[in-house]
Design a protein that fits this description.
alpha+beta; Hypothetical Protein Pfu-838710-001; two-stranded antiparallel sheet; about 25% helix
Length: about 210
């Protein structure tokens, strides 16, 4: 069976991903850039500001707000150390109470606060997050540089987590073998695979563990 050809910047089937976080991936980034095939200009460099909702009791649902919209992805499985995540829900504010009770707070895996209204604005939702003892809103700024190596979508990113600067490097594809070859080719195959949830928790002290360097 022929493998799916994925287009950078476009949606595809659920992908597997390798990602790592640290202070310096200069050599791996240099090799990634030199090995990359030409890519569309729209993904040369991208900037975004997001708010991740971190939960002390959840490590399987990636919950964030970007451009005022709630986006939740859920962990599916790992194959050869690579993680696969699928979209779980997308929602806009004001948000119905039924969506909060049925989808959003179950994804946080925390005790549900009492809801007294039919729908909640973004401000009201963020107040619930602030007041919840097991939740924390974390501001994340991303400057991402896109590449394509061995038919995998690659990225080097500069990330500010509540103002703390880290860098990230990744490769993702529907094909596990292509990702593993890419990480070896750029000299990143010895790095720990760290997803955004784990990286943010380490930076803010919710997990007592360092990044890779």
């Amino acid at each position: 069976m022929s493998k799916e050809i994925i287009e950078i910047g476009e949606q595809s089937k659920p992908r597997f991903e390798f990602r790592s976080f640290g202070q310096n991936f200069d050599e791996a980034h240099k090799r990634m850039a030199r090995l990359s095939v030409p890519i569309p200009e729209k993904v040369w460099e991208r900037h975004s500001e997001e708010i991740y909702i971190m939960s002390r009791t959840n490590d399987i649902n990636n919950t964030k707000i970007r451009n005022g919209k709630m986006d939740i992805k859920t962990y599916v499985k790992s194959v050869d150390g690579l993680e696969q995540w699928n979209p779980l829900m997308k929602g806009e504010f004001p948000m119905k109470a039924g969506m909060l009770t049925g989808e959003v707070f179950p994804a946080f895996q925390v005790e549900m606060p009492e809801l007294t209204k039919d729908e909640y604005t973004y401000k009201e939702f963020m107040e619930m997050i602030t007041n919840h003892p097991d939740l924390q809103a974390v501001r994340v700024y991303k400057q991402r540089f896109g590449y394509m190596v061995n038919d995998t979508i690659c990225e080097y990113g500069i990330v500010l987590i509540n103002g703390a600067k880290v860098v990230t490097i990744n490769s993702e594809s529907t094909e596990v073998a292509d990702i593993k070859k890419t990480m070896k080719d750029i000299g990143a195959d010895s790095f720990e695979n760290i997803n955004y949830l784990q990286a943010i928790k380490r930076v803010i002290g919710m997990i007592n563990k360092p990044l890779v360097n």
